[in-house]
Design brief:
169 residues; mainly alpha; 70% helix; 6 helices
């Protein structure tokens, strides 16, 4: 027990200060709020998936996500449909990111194998150019190694992420 009332007052005041909730006020258009909702939902889906992957308990949606849904007055049926749509978008992004990395890894593997003993004499810049060329030329074949569809893809959209990643390394 504190021996002086002043010390007790400081302890109580410190406890109250730790419990203060700070508020910020924002204004959103309905479209911006819908975009925020989708972003929070995607974050929830990714976090929950990662927790499942690590054999952890599932998480509840964040109070902010719940509050945004309340503000938007989203009915349960619509909420479920939006969840399924965002979940599919997250899966598609994950699949594309994985196949993109796989194709680049395979291109690097093939170029290094083809160069053999010449690899030691190849500059990093030239090696990168050879890998990028192989990646562009053989992308569909590499992805087909992983593709769960029966038919190989015939077209793909160019994605600038590989060039951005190369310029930053």
């Amino acid at each position: 027990m504190p021996s002086s009332p002043l010390l007790l007052h400081r302890i109580i005041r410190a406890s109250i200060n730790r419990m203060d909730t700070q508020f910020a006020f924002l204004s959103f258009s309905k479209n911006e709020l819908i975009e925020l909702h989708r972003a929070l939902l995607a974050r929830f889906i990714m976090e929950d998936s990662l927790r499942k992957e690590h054999a952890l308990e599932p998480i509840d949606p964040s109070p902010l996500l719940t509050r945004v849904e309340q503000l938007l007055q989203i009915p349960d049926r619509t909420s479920h449909a939006i969840f399924e749509q965002v979940d599919e978008e997250v899966w598609q992004h994950s699949w594309f990111a994985f196949t993109d990395e796989w194709a680049w890894f395979r291109a690097r593997q093939d170029v290094r194998k083809k160069l053999g003993s010449e690899l030691a004499n190849t500059s990093p810049k030239d090696l990168e150019a050879l890998i990028d060329h192989r990646y562009d030329e053989w992308f569909d074949r590499y992805v087909h190694e992983l593709d769960m569809n029966d038919k190989p893809t015939t077209e793909r959209k160019k994605k600038p992420s590989r060039q951005i990643r190369n310029s930053s390394s």
